[in-house]
Amino acid sequence: MAASAGIVLAGGRSSRMGTPKAALEWHGSTLLRRVAGVLARVVDGPVVVVRAPGQALPALPAQVDVVEDAREGLGPLQGLATGLAATADRAVAAFVCSTDLPFLHPAFVRRVLRALGEGADVGLPIALGHPQPLAAAYRTALAPVAERLVAAQRLRPAFLFEECMVARLDEAALRADPALAALDPDLDSVININEPADYAAARSRIAPEVTVQRFGALADGHRGPRLVRAATMAGAAAAAGVALGTHVVAALNGDQITRDGEMPLATGDTVSFLAADAGG
Amino acid sequence: MVAGGYFGRALVVHVGDGQASALPLPDDVLRGYVGGVGLGAWLMHRLGPPGVDPLAPDAPLAFVFSPMVGTPLTTSAKFAVVAKSPLTGMLNDALASSQFAISGKLTGHDAIVVTGTCARPSVLLVDGSGARLIDAGDLWGLPAAEAEKRLRERLGRGWRAATIGPAGERGVRYATISHDGRHAGRGGLGTVLGAKRLKGVAVRAATKVASAHPQAVLEAARDLRARSFGPATAKYRELGTLANLLAFNAISTLPTRNFQAATFAGAPRLAAEDLAEMRGVARSGCASCTIGCEHIYAARGGKQMRVEYENVFALGPMCGVSDPDAVLAASGRCDELGLDTISAGGTIAWAMECAERGLIDAPWLRFGDGDALLRAVQEIGARQGLGELLAEGSRRAAEQVGGGSEAFALQVKGLELPGYEPRTMQAMAIGLAVNARGADHNRSGAYEADLSGEHDRLEGGAGQVTAAIETEDRAAVMDSLILCKFLRGVFSEPFDEWATLLSAVTGWDVDGAELRQTARRIVLAKRVFNIREGWTPEDDWLPERLLSEPLRIGSGRVATLTPGRLRGMIDGYYAERGLDGEGRPDEASVAGLLLS
Predict the structure, then answer these.
(1) CA dist., res. A279 & res. B454, Å (int)
(2) Does A255 touch chain B (CB under 8 A)?
(3) Is B426:B458 a contact under the CB 8 Å cutoff?
(4) Taking CB atoms and an 8 Å limit, are A278 and B244 in contact across chains?
(5) ipTM of the shown complex
(6) Tens place of pLDDT for every residue, chain A, 280 residues?
(7) Between B237, B250, B441, which is nearest A280 by CB?
(8) Nearest-CA distance from A265 to chain B in Å?
(9) Strands A248-252 and A257-258
């Protein structure tokens, strides 16, 4: 059993936006691909996207599971119940969020998940003036509780919070985390996009600042770390002047190796480009 | 009729009495084992007395060529040296690349096997006139390169000599055999030659060998040559294997201070990127190679030397030494003495930790001390002082010293680990644990899976096992054909493409599926040899340190390789290989190995 899963609720109607938010482009990726990718970077269990019945989704990595709400139009608690049920036998907890969080930072996800470490059932950020139930951590054992509330037409997350132990994380508590304070000091992680103006504002923001470094023959006279703006691995590769592929791989923060150009990057990341052949 | 590219015989020379005979190599054996390490494994089964002491007169040592040698195929001028290892007690093979391969094969033999022991220091000569011994009293004690130079002066043009240094003469268990600056490095093959009182083997071409389809070979050679200039080999061409150092440091796979860490603060001082700028002298390549991975650096005092990742890793980060002058000097001294740098560095690093823990009386030996490193290398080569202990390798030395030092003797089957951290490369972990040669990066190559992006390199499991088997199989074929593994990236369908090459040279109708079976046969034959020589399931395992000391890496994650996880991967490996739960094959599998 993994410690944590990621659940992205993609089933909203996007009525104010006028177009499906999951497919909105942001610096070379779709919002859904980006949010799912950010969660995949943090959790050790599955990443699950919950969609409305028959809803078309933009492309996702093969490792991401897609499940459907049993009923349409019942709001986020329905999606939450579906997502928790889909992960309950694979992870103890899940970070649950909507698809419209372009600035969601891995450090925020880590901090919120950690709130469950002291026995709470829900880690609920209170940020930018509001509770953030769609950028929160839940024990997956809450799945039957959420399902019961949906069946009873008690569809607001607040009803769920009445029935479990909630660790509320105000901004001070969030910023007490050094990594989060350094990488997302304004808690932009919870800024969501509801209307075209929100989307326009998000698109006007430049991509995250990341450090790139090329090693070996790839350095080609450009040794040492360099700051670039890139929201995806492919963007970082382009900024560094290399192309991911058969002979070139990237290491994210000295950890996982990838050739996935759509892997999302966040402020403060370091990307190392290496020869794929490690023969010595 | 003998297949193209072969002579269909091995020359077996008993150096005790100078008698030589031809051992016929049937077509099914050649097709089943190809050449190089594969054919070498078959020869050891056939000619090695079961249970023989690797340093006893009866223990055979074989120089094995391949059907590709002498063709215009790039990187094909390679030979394998194969024997039972005095370091591991198991089958050992090491490759080197030079004109020795071409001249040796064109003596008219697919392999030259040496048994017996000379009455006095000698050199074995093999050419069209057969085999004979000459006195080598004046060469005994010389560095390998100097002995080779004097031999060529004495013998004249056309002779190529593979020689040992003083370490091989003195029985250091990880001595090398060298030719033209390349070394058959691992497992103590130079020690075996030294025990036979052979300073070297010199060969001179006397005949020719034809490919079955010369035009097809020529066209394939042109194609391969063109591909060898592409991006797949850029790393080797532009900076050489030392390009690994900074990259490995960035991803916490650079073993440091006897595997107590996986990053080294002094790495930039030793990096190819800086050394190439400050000390780079020339770039070169092996005979018949168009990659040109060899990078020559200038050491203090003006001496020039070839530098590779493994010798810099083993004598640098592994020993905590960041002074490039000290590392280059130690590497150069290892070459002169004829020492495997990986085993030398690994054993010295173990001794440094023992000294710091007070387990051995060597207060002068400390991590990071370049002078101490040089002294240790010197004492090993001379088998003097602490060198008498360290000449035995880390496993035997730890057995003598005790005090828990076995836990941090970083070896598998007695062979010291190369510069790949198994806790952060867990496909490599399984490759290192089960490989017949011991802790070996060239016969498993599972690091390819760790850097593929297809697996979590910190979470070894079934995917890594399958990938490790694939890389082990590929290595078995490449090392038998023989083609340089630095070329592997140019093949998109490797088994099929290698089969096409082999068919063009030999005339056999070989396909990729057959070569996959060949790979499995070679891997199994090595295991069966080891079982015959006393292998037990406990030999397929990793050192205690790697299984009990997690590593925290830069991202904050902790790399943990538990005994349970390793056990699970080994069990998976056995199952996929068709072995029983203790790693042994059934009788039917052994019967298919053409060994009887």
Answers:
(1) 18
(2) yes
(3) yes
(4) yes
(5) 0.91
(6) 999 999 999 987 777 888 889 999 999 999 999 999 999 999 999 999 999 999 999 999 999 999 999 887 788 999 999 999 999 999 999 999 999 999 999 999 999 999 998 889 999 999 999 999 999 999 999 999 999 999 999 999 999 999 999 999 999 999 999 999 999 999 999 999 999 999 999 999 999 999 999 999 898 777 789 999 999 999 999 999 999 999 999 999 999 999 999 999 999 999 999 999 988 8
(7) B441
(8) 14
(9) antiparallel
